[in-house]
């Protein structure tokens, strides 16, 4: 296991965990754009739980690689869905935000496969 893999994986887990907490706390800067995108507020607990599970899965994946791969793939799909949601809402200037969270997840997946 390389140092780069561990650092990028922990960074991805921290970023996604922060995002999950922001959803659970219904931070204004998270909730308002989601409402603008047409995401029902009733979905927030499930979306936060998916992010939290993914962040935990990335960390567990440092010890059990199959779990980390599953979590990474799940999070990559989650953030792909987020990008699609932003595009469908025609908020093109907001596309970088889900990509910012997706980048370390994809990096962790790539480094995990090369390790």
From TrEMBL:
Keyword Membrane assigned: yes
Key words, A-Z: Membrane, Transmembrane, Transmembrane helix
Topology in the lipid bilayer: Multi-pass membrane protein
InterPro entries listed in its UniProt record: DoxX (IPR032808)
The organism's place on the tree of life at top rank: Bacteria
Compartments, as annotated in UniProt: Membrane
Name of the protein in question: DoxX family protein
Species per Swiss-Prot/TrEMBL record: Streptomyces rectiviolaceus
């Amino acid at each position: 296991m390389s140092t780069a893999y561990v650092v990028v994986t922990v960074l991805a887990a921290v970023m996604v965990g922060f995002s999950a907490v922001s959803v659970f706390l219904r931070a204004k800067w998270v909730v308002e754009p989601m409402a603008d995108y047409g995401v029902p507020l009733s979905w927030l607990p499930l979306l936060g739980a998916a992010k939290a599970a993914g962040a935990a899965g990335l960390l567990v994946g440092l010890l059990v690689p199959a779990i980390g791969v599953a979590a990474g793939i799940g999070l990559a799909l989650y953030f792909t869905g987020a990008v699609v949601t932003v595009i469908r809402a025609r908020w093109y200037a907001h596309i970088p935000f889900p990509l910012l969270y997706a980048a370390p997840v994809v990096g962790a997946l790539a480094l995990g496969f090369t390790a």
